[in-house]
Specification:
The complex is a heterodimer. By secondary structure, chain A is mainly alpha-helical. Chain A has ten helices and no strands. By secondary structure, chain B is of the alpha/beta class. In chain B, a hairpin with a 2-residue loop joins strand 1 and strand 2. In chain B, helix 2 packs across helix 3, helix 2 packs parallel to helix 4 and helix 3 packs across helix 4. Chain B is globular and about 50 Å long. The chains are: A mainly alpha, B alpha/beta. Bound molecules: adenosine-5'-diphosphate and magnesium ion. The site of adenosine-5'-diphosphate (ADP) has 13 residues of chain B, from strand 1, strand 2 and helix 1.
């Protein structure tokens, strides 16, 4: 089992690396050696990324600051995400299971859902001012709806047979939620959390455009104004990697918690 | 006055469903008395109200008219005394075989040592010891149905209601499970009400066969099967009974 897994794993890793390697080659040959390329070649970006992370190359204002910016972004992503989960999970369960709450709240929430997170930016800056609170709010919004929608879907689509089985085995109606609804909807809820966390990473750059001093989004915007395109790309790469790692960890967690589910286990 | 030996009294029960502005009579004026320990098969073509009758005994539906009583007490909501085995199993996919079997006792607040002991006994009884820690999606249909049977037995069901439990299984698995069910029934003195549309299955299993007919669903015959057990489907008497019941079903 594990031998087969590792061979297939190696093969998959090799396949997965094809596209980025080809892209790097393409990028290299279309940019390096040209005097007036607007896009810096990959080696320059690599050097910049190293300097951002550890310093010692340019020794300017940005050298060695990557960790600080990454920590700022990660804490906003997870802070906004956790707050979104704390609101969207109970709300989604109530909307999904209580007709009265659904009738009262669902239309409003569905009406607000198509409004893109970016459209909230000016309003967020008016309400929360220029600074990290606005960024936090936008991340919260970005993560909120995927969690809400999937939670509602999960708790509404429990197989009716499972309620019959539980009641027949002696579960009291008040315990049905914990004994049946919650575990049965866990796969959907988990999908919502995973999508929500993904969106949190997507909106972090927008969120940090609101004039915060630190954060990967902040240095990307700042570097753009200074025409330091290598820093812009370095920031992009860092966000991509961090988002990837964070999704990977969530998936690992899902594999453990949802071992019973053919889609996850 | 109901016979005190009857575990189940069904008197003049009619069930109507509202369906797209019309009323469907799923079951019309059905009466049935069942004694403790009896193995009763309900047979009849599709749509004759077998599931409806079983679900009313289970407490999942309420009768439109008439009375259903267990030990002379009207049947209310579903409960552990009437264990239901569904054709589609109805197992909890997030629980292992053991946890599914122990679900009822645990839900009813039994001490955990007792739950563990009961679980083990019934998992062993249905031959799933090696699969105790497997999840339902890792099991075959026959194994899933064994879990479903074990879980109502572990929950001290007095009546086991089975709605075409082996209908989705292949012939070999079905035969094995029929034999195992008979073994369990002999040992536990359970009352079993078993819905099937297979005549041979009914003759093989039942003390009594209740024949139903559609349009509207009703009981048309109620006969004892006097063949000695274990029964042999190749036996001439078995065959005679098979012809008898298929004639009855063909003419309705
Ligand atoms: N929930 C329901 N709503 C409307 N009609 C129903 C419902 N359940 C059963 N019926 C109807 O009642 C009749 C008897 O159904 P059922 O008891 O399932 O028969 P059987 O199990 O013998 O095939 C059928 O005509 C069926 O369509
Ligand atoms: Mg049926």
């Amino acid at each position: 089992m594990s031998a087969r897994f590792s061979r297939a794993g190696t093969q998959n890793i090799a396949l997965a690396l094809c596209a980025p390697v080809l892209f790097l080659i393409f990028w290299h040959f279309s940019t390096s050696g040209r005097a007036f390329s607007l896009i810096p070649p990959p080696l320059d970006v690599g050097k910049q990324l190293w300097d951002l992370a550890f310093g010692g190359v340019w020794d300017d204002l940005y050298s060695g600051t990557l960790l600080e910016h990454a920590v700022a972004s990660v804490s906003r992503v997870y802070g906004g995400f956790l707050l979104a989960a704390a609101c969207a999970l109970p709300l989604g369960m109530l909307i999904g299971r209580v007709a009265l709450v659904r009738a009262a709240l669902d239309p409003t929430l569905q009406l607000m859902r198509p409004i893109p997170v970016t459209a909230w930016l000016p309003l967020a800056m008016i309400v929360f001012g220029i600074g990290p609170t606005s960024a936090f709010f936008l991340v919260f919004l970005g993560a909120f709806y995927p969690i809400l929608v999937n939670t509602i879907f999960g708790v509404r689509n429990v197989e009716p047979r499972l309620f019959e089985a539980a009641v027949m085995l002696g579960v009291s109606p008040s315990a049905l939620f914990w004994k049946v609804v919650l575990p049965a909807s866990l796969p959907s809820i988990f999908t919502g959390l995973r999508l929500g966390l993904g969106f949190a990473w997507v909106v972090i750059v927008v969120g940090e455009m609101t004039g915060v001093q630190t954060g990967l989004g902040a240095i990307i915007m700042e570097a753009r104004q200074l025409s330091r395109t290598e820093i812009v790309i370095s920031g992009m790469i860092t966000i991509g990697l961090l988002g990837y790692i964070s999704d990977y960890l969530v998936q690992l967690l899902g594999k453990r918690l949802l071992r019973w589910s053919p889609q996850h286990g | 006055m109901a016979d005190p030996l009857n575990i189940l009294d069904i008197t003049h029960v009619t069930k109507r469903f509202d369906f797209q502005d019309t009323k469907i009579v799923a079951l019309s004026d059905a009466s049935l008395e069942i004694r403790k320990g009896e193995f009763v098969c309900l047979i009849g073509p599709s749509g004759c109200g077998k599931s409806t009758l079983l679900r009313m005994i289970g407490g999942f539906e309420t009768p439109s008219e008439g009375r259903l009583a267990m030990w002379d007490t009207p049947i209310g909501a579903p409960g552990p005394d009437r264990g239901m085995v569904f054709q589609d199993y109805g197992l909890f996919p997030w629980l292992t075989v053991s946890k599914n079997v122990g679900f009822g006792p645990a839900a009813r607040g039994r001490p955990s040592a007792e739950v563990a002991e009961t679980t083990k006994r019934f998992v062993d009884m249905v031959g799933l010891t090696r699969f105790a820690d497997a999840y339902p999606h890792q099991l075959s249909g026959g194994m899933k149905q064994r879990v479903a049977i074990a879980r109502v037995l572990a929950n001290e069901a007095e009546i086991v209601l089975m709605d075409e439990p082996f209908g989705a299984l292949d012939a070999m698995t079905r035969e094995n499970l029929q034999q195992e069910l008979l073994e369990i029934w002999k040992r536990t003195k359970l009352t079993v009400i078993f819905v099937t549309h297979a005549i041979e299955e009914a003759i093989l299993l039942a003390d009594r066969i209740v024949v139903m007919s559609p349009g509207p669903g009703r009981i048309v015959a109620d006969e004892r099967v006097e063949l000695p057990r274990p029964r042999d489907p190749t036996d001439p008497d078995f065959n005679a009974l098979r012809r008898h019941f298929s004639g009855m079903l063909g003419h309705h």
